[in-house]
Amino acid sequence: MWWRSTLATLVLALLLAGCGLRPLHMPVEGEAMHAGLAAIEIAAPKSRLGNELLNQLSADLNPDGLSVPSRYRLDISLKRTRTALAIQLDDRVTRYDLSLAAFFSLIRLEDDRTVYRSAVRRVASYNVLRDPFATLVAEQDADRRAAVEISRQIRTLLALKLAEEER
Q: Which of 7, 35, 118, 128 has the smallest count of CB within 10 Å of its CB?
């Protein structure tokens, strides 16, 4: 009976290979993908949160620090909202949801044309503590966590878009 599961796995692998499914970062084309992502210049808002996103995106889009000429510009705007999540009977808020939305456009520099536009949103929660400084640190950590997740989502969407343009 073990041969049936082995045969089924082999048939499934052949079917997936035949339909054009391939890893996003294949070794041969992966180098072009890395260079394409590294060629994106990032224009993020001038704020603490914008700087956090800029640093994370720089690390995600160009982890090897490749020096390539810019072919695209990524314009990003952020919208941050804070919503009370847990309210006690005495009207004290003890937990907040921090919602971070990033609206971005990928602009090709050679003709200044927008080739891709999208938005991503992430929610991070944090507790309100008795110590105001601890609450501030928790809020900043929630900002950082949301920025990291948004950066990863933007990177995935941009990689898919660049892979689509290469075909």
A: 7
Q: Answer whether residue 27 shows pLDDT above 60.
A: no
Burial label for 61, CB within 10 Å (0-12, 13-18, 19+), is buried
Q: Find out whether 143 and 117 touch, Cβ atoms under 8 Å.
A: no
Short-list 17, 57, 36, CA closest to 165: 36
Pairing of strands 93-108, 72-87: antiparallel
Sort strands 40-43 and 113-127 into parallel, antiparallel or unpaired.
unpaired
Residue 119 tokens read as: 């938005």
What tokens were used for 48?
């603490």
CATH of 30-166, picked from 2.40.50.140, 1.10.510.10, 3.30.160.150, 3.30.70.3400, is 3.30.160.150
Any bridge partners for residue 124, and if so which? 98
Residues in the chain: 167
Return the closest-CA partner of residue 114 out of 55, 152, 161, 53. 161
* Token digits of residue 155: 């990177």
Closest-CA residue to 79 (of 106, 98, 93)? 98
Tell me the pLDDT band of 66, cut-offs 50, 70 and 90: confident
Closest CA relative to residue 112, chosen from 60, 78, 70:
70
pTM: 0.76
